[in-house]
Amino acid sequence: MTRHLKKVELHCHLEGAAPPSLTLAQARKYNIDIAAYLKDGAYVWHDFASFLQCYDKISEVYKTEEDYALLTETYLGELASVGTIYSELIVSPDHGKRIGLGADAYIAGVCEGIRRAEAANGIVARLIVTGERHFGPDSVVGAAEYAAKARNPLITGFNLAGEERMGRVADYARAFDIARDAGLGLTIHAGEVCGPFSVADALDVVRPSRIGHGVRAIEDEALVRRLAEQGTVLEVCPGSNIALKVFPDFAAHPLRRLKEAGVRVTISSDDPPFFHTSLEREYELAASAFGFTDSEIDELTRTGLEAAFVDEETRKVLLARL
Ligand SMILES: Nc1ncnc2[nH]cnc12
Ligand SMILES: [Zn+2]
Fold this sequence. Notes:
GO terms for molecular function: adenine deaminase activity; zinc ion binding. It is an enzyme of class 3 (hydrolase). By secondary structure, the protein is an alpha/beta fold. Helix content is about 45%, strand content about 15%. About 50% of the residues are buried. It binds adenine and zinc ion (ZN).
């Protein structure tokens, strides 16, 4: 049982955390037909490409500032109820633009949700603005420029998500230069769908302190040594990896091997209801599927706080709550 353990999550996509029941209520409210994407209380997809399509489709039922406040407050409330003290949410102001709400109103809604959740439950949260590879390099530069100019104290990081097989990391280098110059923390999805070359590309081009997933680095011993030596933190999402068939089962998943090789690892849920998981389940899996003791799990959580995109004063306060 890991219920008593304090928890931290560094890698969760906000719209990917939308409970199916809330999405259904939203779809009814706006009279949007999502029957092909949400059936019998579960999101419908069959591979990585159709997962991304389903994700983009269901995101369309969240339309207003208040919708985003409610979605954020709901997810953070769920996290707090299982002992989570800190959460980083991956958000797409670009999505706000695409649905006609606008990036500022989208972010304002999310920030309102964070405020409500912190007031109700004490959970601390920060935002990582993401670009989506499948919308192309220009849109990713736009997302970086937005994050850099926002001067919003809750926006503390920049990420690149979406279709990993589209283009190479170098195509998105400019976006990361903009985010780095603005002092944002950098993380990037790599080594999830694509092999070790994508992790090496990310390290060479972006020089991030963290990598989203990164688990396929296990296929290259020298790369695993490089991750360990550089102290790059991996945001590992085991339930997501199994649902997306990156590995056939938990026995084949490299979380433990990476940790034993000296790589700094953390655990997160990625897009929990899409992958029939939750942060609570990921912590349970750390114990039941990977055999970590409570103190080893606390180490993962501590690594999460050490790698969090927060100011040093906030980090100190959070570490003291562990
Ligand atoms: N697991 C994932 N990989 C890449 N992009 C994503 N967007 C939402 N979830 C994602
Ligand atoms: Zn992700």
